[in-house]
Amino acid sequence: MGDRSRLCSVWLGSETGILKGVSLSRKQAFNFCNSSHLTRDQEVRALCWADPAESELLVGSVDGTVKTFSIEKGAFTETRRCGDSAEGCFTGLAALNGSALVTCVECGTLRVWRGDSSEPATELNAGKNVCRMRQSPVHTHKVATGGKENGLKIWDLERPENPVFTAKNLRDDWLDLRQPHWVKDMAFIPNSDKVVTCTGYHQVHVFDPSSPQRRPVLKAEYGEYPLTALSLAAAGNTVVVGNTHGHVALLDLRKGLVRGCLKGLAGGVRALQCHSSQPVVASCGLDRFLRIHSLEDRKLQHKVYLKSRLNCLLLSSQGLEDGGEDTQGEGATQEVKEEDEVWDTMEQVEEAVEREPKRKTTEEEDQQKKSKKKRKKGQD
């Protein structure tokens, strides 16, 4: 299994609890799990790298466990309890200083775990209905949280008593009615203190904690459906957002305008991630496909069928392979062939189509009228 895992450059977590790895160079996908013991409680909801060298993965499951997966060995090496399923699913997972671990669940409990201790070293309440927790890629001790009726908050885990920034809600609308807020995802903009968020009300907001204004410094909207995920391009000037109807768009953060859309998705988007050095973005969701799009010409470079509904994805910082033909995962190809054989062996049924009676032309109608008149005269 270690030979397979070392080939993979994209990792995905599925609703069935399977960790999936994709090798774009070989156009193959692999499952890493013990299929005989799979249950619904093992659904994968969060993925992150355990170390900067990307030698291990951290996999967060619905049952509150975090598993460590070794890329070198191609197997799970450790399992630790980091919560309870009654608290809700993981909304965020991050590694802190190598050995420490940061977790956040839907009820708003954010914990820092150090060493092998079964008790958290730090625990704080980020508010109810948390939808996402993200770690700053530069200052790893800073994280952002947000959710439904729970505005953006930025926390310093070295001083966790109070958030270092709490966003203020939008101003009342033109009817003086309060505008609800629903943060679905966020990201730290590189080379600045700003944070960009997307909401369940198809909005994109940029907040600047360094300014005295706690409301968004930039506001934009995309589409009519709730936005579910976002990711920043390497340059930091473009954000990629996806919604519940499978629409993915590129927005310019300098002007708040839509630069273009990515086509091909057929289901709600669950996760997006732009590569750290290449102009590509990976997406996955309910349609069971992993897709790799170019951010330059917005063309589809890779398309891999993975058989399960996908919740999250993680890209390797190593360079992804150049585009190729559409691919299907190992095991999926055989399934498609079997399905085709079933359809080929089925008996074809032809339905009899009832045709509408041909309408008579005006000449035929005139001749019928004349013949009727002649009959009447003959009878008289």
TrEMBL record:
One BP annotation, GO: ribosomal large subunit biogenesis
SUPFAM superfamilies: WD40 repeat-like
Amino acid composition bias (Basic and acidic residues), ranges on this chain: 352-362
Region described as Disordered: spans on this chain: 321-380
SMART domains per record: WD40 (SM00320)
Feature: compositional bias, Acidic residues: 337-351
Domain of life of the source: Eukaryota
Keywords per UniProt: Methylation, Nucleus, Phosphoprotein, Repeat, WD repeat
InterPro entries in the cross-refs: WD40/YVTN_repeat-like_dom_sf, WD40_repeat_dom_sf, WD40_rpt, WDR74/Nsa1
GO CC terms of this entry: nucleolus; preribosome, large subunit precursor
Gene3D superfamilies with a match to the protein in the record: YVTN repeat-like/Quinoprotein amine dehydrogenase (2.130.10.10)
Subcellular location: Nucleus, Nucleolus
Compositional bias per record (Basic residues), positions renumbered to this chain: 370-380
Signal peptide feature range: none
Predominant location: nucleus
Quaternary structure, from the entry: Isoform 1 interacts (through WDR repeats) with NVL; the interaction is independent of RNA or pre-60S ribosome particles. Isoform 2 does not interact with NVL. Interacts with MTREX; the interaction dissociation in a late stage of rRNA synthesis is required for appropriate maturation of pre-60S particles and depends on the ATPase activity of NVL.
Name listed for the protein in its UniProt record: WD repeat-containing protein 74
Species of provenance: Monopterus albus (Swamp eel)
